[in-house]
Specification:
Blueprint (H helix, E strand, L loop, with lengths): L1 H24 L8 H7 L2 H7 L13 E3 L10 E5 L25 H4 L5 H17 L4 E3 L22 H16 L4 E7 L12 E3 L2 H8 L1 H10 L3 E4 L3 E2 L2 E2 L4 H11 L5 E3 L8 H7 L9 H13 L4 H15 L16 H13 L3 E5 L11 E5 L24 H8 L2 E2 L1 H21 L15 H10 L2 E8 L9 H5 L3 H16 L3 E8 L14 E4 L7 H9 L13 E2 L30 E3 L8 H6 L4 E3 L10 E3 L3 E5 L2 E10 L8 E7 L11 E7 L8 E9 L5 E3 L4 E4 L2 E10 L2 E10 L3 E4 L7 H4 L1
Parallel strand pairs: 2-3, 3-4, 4-6, 5-7, 5-17, 6-9, 11-12, 11-13, 13-14, 14-15
Antiparallel strand pairs: 1-2, 7-8, 10-15, 16-18, 19-21, 20-21, 21-24, 22-23, 22-27, 25-26, 26-29, 27-28
Helix pairs in contact: 5-6, 5-13, 6-8, 13-19, 14-19, 16-18
Bound molecules: alpha-D-glucopyranose (GLC).
Alpha-D-glucopyranose binds next to loops.
């Protein structure tokens, strides 16, 4: 008996231990047990969580985080953006399609100057992230428009860090309102595509703080993105993904970021240095990176505390995701409704640059000669990871016909056949179009003369595309091609001789030269790359169904070489010039222009431009009241009343610029410190807008003191319809200087030592 009892007890104990052991293994991730999970994880599991994988991925996704089934840690899925979710539209084994909506790109939506509109658009975009089963959209791209030739500018917002940061924060809020995440990218100073993975951006502390980091600071503090994507490039000698000062001291300790940092999509040598610097997640992730981390742990080169810190950040991110919450995604977002959102977002952002003698709006039933190969192959978005697989991209022929115009049939057919020939040739050669635009077919002057007699007006669509991995160039890209120029001159001559008008549509990924030809035409409309429905938005503005209210988020210079950064930008394609490692603007780029980017330079130095920052016309007019500014040690509050003094309803963007008192640091003549867009105002209707600017937001960065400083003195407050068109002013005295010291962690390592 005794023996049996003993055996029974032993069995019970084994069962107990087994259960306990099972209990140990059955701990599963919850929002409130992350530290227990970390204790239960093996070192291999921890390291595996720090390195992404591309296994079993949703078709078209960019990457993921690794699952750990035994601990209830799911895979999470990362997909590209930023003009919409970028996934494969078809899948093996099902007839179901997975098209997404191609929304207007960042460069256009920034021209709306409308926070609410951005949130409206991205809440629809975020719904597609959720319903297609992704957890994060790798967006918004927010690098500053340092130079108009950067190939990815179309994904980004502006030359101004405040406008860029506010738009980024709104983008993040809209997306994340769906319970999915964003990734503000590429942190930081990914201002060119040439040699983007290795280029060393050499930037002063002040330019970093006031420009290249400032929009990220605003986006982090006001948008609270789940993730940040570090850039490929270096800043002052250190890869950003390995830069402790940027990723931990500034991003986390100073700005309070509490999400995860992931690398951009490439494997560099310094995996361990990146993990120690605060780069939590290596994407797309390769086994060699796990080996490096495991070896470093064994050698004591990275502590388990550092590993656990990054693991904790990733687990805190995972418990927020739809995949962790087992959200049952439908794979059927309402694309029809989202197409309407995309069209509205484009309508509210498109910029009217010229409208001589009220050429626009047209009646909508005119006979129109529609010129330009881009009228058929309309650029909804640029190229690269920022593309979106949409079911359809509207072109100008269909949009203008739908709007009620009668297109010159022969001319429309001519462009369709040219397009068919070009695409057939590309297919045969297996080549895509020239990186920057389609070859513009010629039209004889005799034909143009005939068309000028037969039609009521001419509309010419000028197209430019570009994207990831390649920057634009000056010749035949920033500037018109010879054929484009000849076509435009002949159209202008023939139609004006016939007493008819000429309208130009600039469907481009970035700034183009306009000064040499804008006086040859009667109206210029700038939709940039307006998404899949953008052509319809253009047509709505041509007919007056929509009154344009967009304003430029970047300067259109007269000449490319007027731009300060043009002396330090790789607008040549030859990357072999010079010895590797010493190639100017390829291996390193000196940001010699410092803070003098865009209007900060042009306005301060009174350099004439073709179209200034903040400029945009309406079909109506507005007046500004006398402003009131109430100031104190916290900053100031400004109010101003805008009245519609014209004949049609419209919306106005009020731009608030500040000129700091002279003395001390050299400062721009004026800097954008706030903005507000009115609601739709009927003729005669007014709206009072209020804008607040804190003392910190007024500050300039003093490198000597490594501190933000708002000097005492008299501040000028300017209310403008553009940076060059100030309609009201006020001033106030800021009694006591204030400073905000920050860590001196951004200089080149040698300098800081
Ligand atoms: C690319 C891009 C980045 C994108 C990532 C994933 O290299 O730089 O914007 O999100 O890889 O595709």
């Amino acid at each position: 008996m005794k023996k049996q009892g003993l055996i029974l007890m032993l069995c019970l104990m084994c069962a107990l231990f087994a259960t306990k052991g099972m209990a140990q293994n059955t701990i599963v991730l919850r929002e409130d047990n992350i530290d227990d999970i970390i204790k239960a994880m093996t070192v291999e599991e921890k390291v595996g969580l720090l390195v992404g994988s591309q296994e079993a991925m949703m078709p078209g996704a960019a990457g993921n985080t690794r699952p750990i089934e035994r601990l209830g840690i799911p895979m999470t899925i990362l997909c590209d953006g930023p003009a919409g979710l970028n996934i494969e539209p078809t899948r093996e084994g099902t007839d179901q399609t997975f098209y997404c909506t191609g929304f207007p790109t960042g460069t256009l939506t920034a021209c709306s100057w409308d926070i609410a509109l951005m949130e409206y658009m991205t809440s629809a975009m975020g719904n597609e992230v959720l319903e297609y089963g992704a957890d994060v959209i790798l967006a918004p791209g927010i690098n500053l428009h340092r130079n108009p030739l950067c190939g990815r500018n179309f994904e980004y917002f502006s030359e101004d860090p405040l406008l860029s940061g506010k738009m980024a924060a709104a983008f993040v809020s809209g997306i994340q309102s769906n319970g999915v995440g964003t990734s503000i990218k590429h942190y930081a100073a990914n201002s060119q595509e040439i040699n983007r993975r290795e280029n060393d951006a050499r930037i002063s502390d002040r330019a970093l703080r006031e420009l290249y980091l400032k929009n990220f600071e605003i986006a982090v503090k006001e948008g609270k993105p789940w993730t940040v994507m570090s850039s490929y490039n270096k800043v002052n000698g250190d890869y950003t993904q390995q830069h402790h000062g940027m990723l931990t001291t500034v991003l986390r300790d100073e700005w309070g970021f509490d999400g995860i940092v992931m690398t951009d999509w490439g494997v560099k040598e310094g995996t361990v240095k990146a993990a120690k610097a605060g780069n939590d997640l290596m994407e797309p992730g390769r086994p060699v990176e796990m080996e490096r981390l495991l070896a470093a742990i064994n050698k004591g080169e990275i502590s388990m505390e550092e590993i656990d810190r990054n693991v904790r950040n990733i687990l805190k991110y995972i418990v927020k995701t739809p995949n962790f919450k087992h959200y049952k995604h439908s794979d059927k977002p309402d694309l029809k409704a989202h197409a309407t959102v995309a069209r509205k977002a484009a309508e509210e952002s498109i910029v009217l640059l010229k409208n001589g003698n009220n050429t626009l709006p047209m009646k909508g039933n005119e006979k129109v000669a529609l010129y330009g190969i881009t009228s058929v192959d309309f650029f909804g978005i640029g190229t690269g990871s920022g593309e979106v697989n949409t079911a359809h991209v509207a072109n100008m022929q269909e949009a203008m016909t739908t709007a009620g115009f009668t297109l010159d049939k022969d001319l429309a057919e001519y462009y369709r056949s040219c397009y068919a020939t070009q695409t057939a040739t590309e297919k045969m050669n297996g080549s895509a179009i020239d990186k920057r635009h389609r070859a513009e077919p010629t039209v004889s002057i005799k034909a143009i003369e005939r068309q000028a007699q037969a039609n009521d007006m001419a509309v010419f669509v000028l197209g430019r595309t570009a994207g990831e991995g390649a920057d634009r160039v000056v010749k035949d890209d920033f500037e018109l091609t010879a054929i484009e120029r000849e076509l435009l001159q002949n159209i202008s001559m023939c139609y004006h001789k016939a007493g008819k008008k000429v309208v130009i549509i600039i469907n481009a990924v970035g700034v183009v030269e306009t000064a040499s030809w804008k006086n040859m035409v009667d109206a210029i409309l700038l939709p940039w790359t307006p998404g899949q429905e953008g052509a319809y938005a253009v047509a709505d503005i041509l007919t007056g169904k929509v009154n344009p209210s967009g304003k430029l988020a970047e300067t259109f210079p007269i000449n490319y070489m007027d731009i300060p950064s043009s002396r330090n930008f790789p607008y040549t394609w030859d990357m072999t010039e010079g010895r590797k490692g010493e190639r100017k603007n390829v291996d390193f780029t000196d940001y010699e222009e410092d803070i003098w980017v865009g209007y900060r330079y042009f306005q301060t130095n009174n350099v004439e431009v073709s179209f200034p920052f903040g400029y945009g016309l309406s079909y109506t007019t507005f007046s500004y009241s006398k402003p009131s500014v109430k100031a104190g040690k916290e900053g100031f509050t400004a109010t101003i009343t805008v009245t519609n003094t014209g004949k049609v309803a419209g919306r106005e963007v009020v731009e608030l610029y500040v000129a700091a008192p002279a003395g001390g640091l050299e400062k721009p003549a004026r800097e954008l410190k706030a903005f507000a867009k009115t609601k739709m105002l009927a003729p005669g209707q007014s709206e009072t807008v209020t804008m607040k600017v804190s003392a910190y937001e007024m500050a300039s960065f003093n490198e000597e003191h490594s501190a933000w400083e708002t000097a005492a003195g008299t501040y000028q407050v300017m209310f403008g319809a553009s940076v060059a068109d100030i309609l009201a002013t006020a001033s106030f005295n800021f009694k006591k200087a204030q400073t905000w010291p920050v860590h001196d962690v951004l200089r080149p390592v040698k300098e800081a030592e």
